[in-house]
Design goal:
Blueprint (H helix, E strand, L loop, with lengths): L1 E5 L2 H10 L1 E8 L2 E8 L2 E7 L4 H15 L3 E10 L9 E9 L22 E2 L2 H7 L9 E8 L9 H8 L5 E3 L2 H11 L3 E9 L5 H12 L2 H12 L1
Parallel strand pairs: 1-4, 1-5, 5-10, 6-8, 8-9
Antiparallel strand pairs: 2-3, 3-4, 5-9, 6-7, 6-10
Helix pairs in contact: 2-5
The structure holds S-adenosyl-L-homocysteine.
The site of S-adenosyl-L-homocysteine has 18 residues, from strand 5, strand 9, strand 10 and helix 6.
Length: 228
């Protein structure tokens, strides 16, 4: 069984549209959709936005449905200047940009007193993703930064993310999923479509482009499902 998690309704809509034999399992106000998608058994869920909700729902999915792989999918803001709105980024690795215990001697992004820092996505899933082509869409591979902030900034913070943390895109769930999957030894990858450029126009662009581009990631994930 393959777990597919998105943060918002728009991010899981395309998967539910393609899925067959859907069975709903409700936990609190969260709906897990067991289904068949591209001939694979899947469980699709909307986690809600941010690290706490996504980590909680990811662990619940692992405990209840025993997925062999987890794919997190949705939209992200671009940091890499070569990325355009509508392009797709597949995580090679991820880190929490808002985990900062550098005053204690930790590296930026490192969870104190642990080895949790930069989370490498499963290399097999990344390699398979490299064979995927979607007509009309550029697919990039890069570092995703995660934090509990919608990033809309032209200032030093964005520069720090790019120059120091080497981020290619920023969002609010990926590294949380990565940490939970690492703890549980579950292979994972994050597939995101660029909805904005995390700059001064990010709020307007996010609102305007989310409905247009939210389905793009599903074009990659559908092919990925067929290959794993
Ligand atoms: N309007 C939504 C909130 C969206 S927050 C609501 O009311 O619920 C933005 C979502 O898109 C997050 O899930 C995050 O992962 C992703 N995202 C897209 N662009 C982003 C950016 N520039 N900074 C941070 N997260 C971004």
């Amino acid at each position: 069984m393959i777990g597919i998690i998105g943060a918002m309704d728009q991010e899981i809509k395309a998967y539910l549209g393609l899925a067959q034999n859907i069975k709903e399992i409700v936990w609190h106000n969260i709906v897990f959709y067991r289904a068949t998608l591209c001939n694979k058994e899947v469980c699709i869920v909307k986690s809600g936005v941010g690290k706490v909700l996504s980590a909680t729902i990811c662990q619940k999915m692992i405990d209840e449905f025993l997925p062999s792989t987890i794919i997190f999918t949705g939209v992200a803001g671009a940091l890499n200047s070569t990325y355009n709105i509508g392009d797709i980024i597949i995580s090679t690795d991820l880190m929490q940009h808002d985990m900062d215990a550098t005053l204690l001697g930790c590296k930026h992004g490192q969870v104190p007193y642990s080895d949790y820092h930069i989370f490498k996505a499963n290399s097999n899933l990344v390699d398979i993703s490299k064979t995927i082509k979607v007509e009309g869409h550029s697919i990039h591979f890069g570092r995703i930064l995660t934090g509990d902030t919608f990033v809309s900034s032209q200032d030093s913070k964005r520069k720090f993310f790019i120059d120091e943390l080497k981020g290619d895109a920023v969002e609010m769930e990926g590294a949380a999923i990565a940490q939970v999957c690492t703890l549980n030894k579950i292979p994972y990858v994050v597939v995101r479509t660029i909805s904005d450029k995390a700059d001064g126009e990010a709020c307007e662009n996010f609102e305007a482009f989310l409905p247009q581009v939210a389905d793009n990631s599903s074009k990659v994930v559908s092919q990925l499902l067929q290959k794993i």
